[in-house]
Structure formats: structure tokens, C-alpha cells
Amino acid sequence: MNKELLLKVDSGINFSVNTQLKEQLKWLIGLGEIRPGDMLPSANQLADALGLNRNTVNLVYTQLRDEGLLKMQKGRGTQVMDNAKVEHLQHARKPLEQLVTQMMDVAEKQGIPLVDLFISGLAYTLLHPSEKEEVPRIVLIECQGHDHSFYRQEIERVTASQVETLFLEELPQEGEAALDVLEQANVIITTLNHAEEVRHRMSHYEKKLYVIGATIELSSLLDMAKLKPDSEVGFVCLGKTGGQWMASGVQEAGITQIHAHAVGMKDQEQLHELLERADKVYASPAVYEDLQALNPDKVALYPMVLEKSSESLLRMIIENEVD
């Protein structure tokens, strides 16, 4: 993509920088200024252009990927998807563009600052809520190495609510300013992998933290148990820590006759070495499609499932929040 993206952020607006950037990108995609198949600037390039932290841009790209609008591939870049979700966004934004443009024209003629118009409009909307059932704001905290998209999708499936992912690496350290996304959340969820660390890092928020877990389907464990003794078996996730969690789950199930190797998708050199020497490679749902394309004969899906107790917990949470 050669054309320059006319994006900007304004620290004086009472919306988080990542929200400003995310919503501008959705407008550009919705209006066709950025087309399906276009490559977005790298996180470093966009961060430098806007004077932002690279992690902020990565968070926005990840959120838009989770919404089905972008595809992120290590070493290839970030690309706008060509799918039904992008098409739906384009159809939805056309009438909105006409309405917003009309409002802007009227406001400018009357000398009303546009930022004041839209912020006050949001506040006025909140004062006059619709009769629709209020949907709780759910935030999932996970690390970038685990299959966070699996957990987000499972939470959305059970609760029928939209979930925002916040990475553990982005939680503020002691003494740093609190994050708006956590302050505004009704429900904060993390996984067993990071429960203690998240509890410690969030102690000053005075909000209840819910913990969920996942396991592997029994049928897949039975297949692994049939592997020949001393088989070289790889476990690949977004990061090495995720692969280690996958391997430990197999070991805890009593499957100890194999030699397990954990690798992160971003570790390209180790990944290619693993694909060459391993007898079998299991990939988490987040990386399965890309990894399977590299070696369809060796790669199999590591089918994660939400624990039954965690599903019950999520149903209880949503019932209490809605009531």
C-alpha cells in the first residue's frame, strides 16, 4: 500500500489513543480508503509517524484482527481481509458517513466545535439509553504467547458479549497510571496460566477477577497416546510459553513416551527446524492455518476446549451482570 494514511491522535480528547486509532482505521476500511488486500504500515512505522508506542499500535492491530478485519502474519505484515465482516462494515458505514457529514456541516455553520459535538452527543446518548438489555464490558487479560484469541472467542460464545483483549505485558506496573479499559470494565477475566500474576498486578483496581481454564479434547489425547515411543513431537502456539502449556497438558495426561518440543510461531528459525525433524507437530487454533500450510503432512490441530467449570462460571457471571 503506497498511499499515506491520514491518521492522527489527540491527547486532549477524552478517548484513549488506541480507541482513536482503532476507530479511524475502521472508518478508512469502511469507506474503502483502505481496500481488502491492502497492507497496513508496520507497527513501528505507524508508531513513529504518530508519536506512539509500538505496543499501542500492535494492540489496535490485534483488536481489529480479532474483529475479523485484519490478518497479521509474522514476516509478511498486516493486511486488510477480504471477507463478509469487511463487507458488512462497508455497508454499515455508508449511511453513517452521510449522517455524520450532515451533522458536521450544521455544527460548523453554527460555530460548534466538532469534538464538543460528538463528546456531548455520546454523553447525551448515555442519558437516554435504549430499552435494550445492557451488555457488560468484558476484558480478557492474557499474554501474547498463549492462544488468547481462543479464550476471547469462547468467552464471546458463552456470554454473547463482545470481549476486549488486554495483554499481560501491557498491564501498568506499580505506580503507573491505571488503564481506562480496566477502569470501565464490568467483568475482568484471566486464565489459570497467569492468575496469580494478574491478581498481583491488579490489586489496586479493587475489582473482582475471574479465572478460567482450557484443556484438550479427549479424542486428541487418545491419538497422541498412540504415537510411537520416543517420537519427536512439536507444540506450537503464538509464543513459546503457549507451546509449553500445550506440552505440559499432554504430559499431565500421562503421555510421557514422546519427546516434546515447544516453539513459538514468531521463532521462525526454530520453527523450521522443528518442522524438519519432528514426527508430528500440534498447532494451537491461532496458528494452525498458517502452520498447516507450511507442512500439511506433519501438522495437526491441538483442539482446545473450555473447561466445563469455566463455562459454568461464565454463564453465572453474565446472568449476575445482566440482572
Automatic annotation (TrEMBL):
PROSITE patterns: HTH_GNTR (PS50949). Keywords: DNA-binding, Transcription, Transcription regulation. One of its GO terms (molecular function) is DNA binding. It comes from the Bacteria. Residues 15-83 form the HTH gntR-type domain. PANTHER family: GNTR-FAMILY TRANSCRIPTIONAL REGULATOR, HTH-TYPE TRANSCRIPTIONAL REPRESSOR YTRA. This is Transcriptional regulator, GntR family.
